[in-house]
Give the backbone structure.
Amino acid sequence: MDQDREMMSRYRIAVPDSYSILVSHGNCKHHNPNSQLPEGMILSSNENGCGFSLTIKADTKLSKPVQIINLFDDENDTPQKTCNRVIMEAGSSADLLIGDCTFSEKPHSRRDETDITLGEAATLNLVRLQTLNDATCLTTVTSVRQAASSQMKTHFVSLRGNRICNRLTVTLSGKNAGHFASGLSLTQQSEHTENEIRIEHASPDCQSNQLFKQILSDRSTGIFTGRTVVRQNSQRTLAYQRSSNILLHPQAKMDIRPQLEIYADDVKCSHGATVGQLDAEALFYLRSRGIGEEEAKKMLLQAFAGEILDGISCIPFRESILKLMAS
């Protein structure tokens, strides 16, 4: 319980004004005692006790973010499974911050599934921050279904972990729906991070954007699989996909798998991918201005990551991520 309080305290400092709940070993333990849940919001453990359930009632617009902390702190080589549910009713709006954390160096394996439904004109901003030990393996499976005029942003930030796999499946089932998915991964030693994104345009006039970046050092590896599917009736689709990656060591490896599956005529779809090292000219320019090599490299990497972090609307959470990256 002392560790639980320490974890809650750490995250209240990062986001002091939020509705929060701690999920320890798959079980919801307590809300932030300093915050009362507002009318129109229901947050609880799932029926089986493994995971959380969040409902935002119609036309409810939360002024504070909702914060979920997944604490993995027991030794477990056998994968555990947690199931979560998020329902955004018509016209509702919320920010959801999820932190996947470990305190100890014990090995842990977890599969975390989250089912998200957005009603008509609902808005959801989801940020998932992963700071795990080098003995923990985590697979997240996020399934999203969006009604007409709904908008969602999903950000994965993976800073540490033995093996992390994020799988996101989105179905844009109503007209004028939109989804922006992004990710930033930092891997070192023999760590591996994989982001697998599938966005299906199942209705006309929808828009999607995928932007994923990874910085790899040592012998670390990464995989990005981005798939965009445009169904036959989904005219006037706008879909973009980009993966940019920096290798800091010759033994680091990145695998990029862009996929476009288009069955409609009136669409604008594109994808791009780059894998390379730090810009030598930019590094030379900074060095010529009297900046040391290590500091110059740090500045360039921060600029590279900034395009992802700038999309996180919760400023305290973004600042917390920056501090973790600098540590």
Notes: Helices lie at 2-14, 280-288, 293-309, 315-326. The chain has a mean pLDDT of 87. DSSP finds four helices and 19 strands in the chain.
